[in-house]
Amino acid sequence: MGVPGRGGAALRTVGTADGGRPSGATLGVAVACLGFFLIMLDSTVVNVAAPVIGADVGGGISGMQWVVNAYVLVFAASLLSSGAVSDRIGAVRALGCGLALFGAASVACAAAPSLSWLVAARAAQGLGAALILPSSLALIRQSADDAASRARRITLWAMSGGVAVSSGPVVGGVLTSGLGWQAVFWINVPLCALGLALGRTPASEPRPAPLDLPGQAAAVVGLASLTYAIVEDGPLSRWALVVFGLAAAGFVLAEIRAPHPVVPPALVRSPAALTAVGTGFVMNASFFGIVFVFTLYFQQLKAHGPLVTGLMFVPLTALTLVGNLVAGRLMTRLGTWRILTLSQAVEALGCLALLLAGPGAPPALVLLFFLPIGLGAGATSPPMTNALLDAVDPAHAGAAGGLLGVMRQVGGLLGVAVFGAVVAGLGVTSGTRLALALCLTMLAVSSALALVQARRHPVERPEGKG
Fold it and tell me: For the domain bounded by 20-198+263-456, which CATH number is listed?
């Protein structure tokens, strides 16, 4: 799984080595896609099992939120430094460490005797995922020197996540109904072992990448306190907001003073990069928020079991894979930013249709309106990633991937936390309406911002053609 860094011999082709064996680049891309598949599968497969987990280990809706969010919280916060860790020790080594930790934490999740144990093990999974994501993206970036090859490999990488998202609810429903909720964690173990077995190739070359520990610590405290304030109720929630404010101020101060901040200044100064990472936030907040809310909708309001609930999400999640394919083919023709504008507009139309239909709509109509949401979300991922990598220097690919991952996971974290709190406070029917209205608003704003970038970055056409 070796992809030498900038100081080593660059890998320029994805093919086979002498003797018909897969080349280092082929294995690097394969393991990068497997790693991304793994962490995206865990983002959806657990959602369907959450009500069953809650009934077994207790905790109510807030307990279910913590089972989902403990993973996402640590994942998001740790991504601020994991990109630098990937650059510092080499993407191959970082990915291997992430796979090993993720597998071990999955075993701990499956064996959890209580809610607190499960939440702690999910947090450990999040740390492993944080090592996997930026290192997998760095391997993809390092395996291609030209824009066309990079776009193809990013599409393949995004498709692996799309396959995971599309299959996750069904896999979760089948495993939970047939083998119990523990099976949704056991399934990770052989996948991690496969990634480690494929990864026995020369390591990529590390490069100096200082860590900003004060900024990282402030981010962890800030995200944890904000999540607690949203999910839990009572006087401690107000104190948690105070802690969040102090942590946020401490993070900004640490970044200003740090000689090597976790967010490179070049990324902050780039409107295109900021728009791309903002898109990642909106994409995950809307998509995973909808999945969580409609899991409660199907199981609590409609009284469906985990298997039927998983099948209900097939139109939504299967279209994400179609969206990946469509966006990958159209990026070079229509331009990255135009695709980002259109994809989010399509997803917003699906949310609007569900909002107008109302929670009492026939199931067939709900499934029909899931289609544009899945298509739009899937079509957003490849151009969003490509837009970010086009906007940054290759030396910052790991940090850029980490920042994008942070914003995506924070989006998913807050989407589940806020929408779950809305449903807990207003009930499933009214809460679903408000959640859809919030999704519609976020997607409309993000699509408009992408349109601004589309006008600033017109599509370059070959000479002599239109």
Answer: 1.20.1250.20
End-to-end Cα separation, the chain, in angstroms: 43
Q: Yes or no: say if 344 and 450 are a contact pair by the CB < 8 Å rule.
A: yes
pTM, whole model, 2 decimals? 0.69
Q: Where are the domains of the chain?
A: 20-198+263-456, 213-254
Cross-strand pairs, 22: 16
Tens of pLDDT, residue by residue over 336-370, are 888 999 999 999 999 999 999 877 778 788 889 89
User: 265: burial class by Cβ within 10 Å (0-12, 13-18, 19+)?
Assistant: exposed
Q: How far apart are CA 49 and CA 70, in angstroms?
A: 15
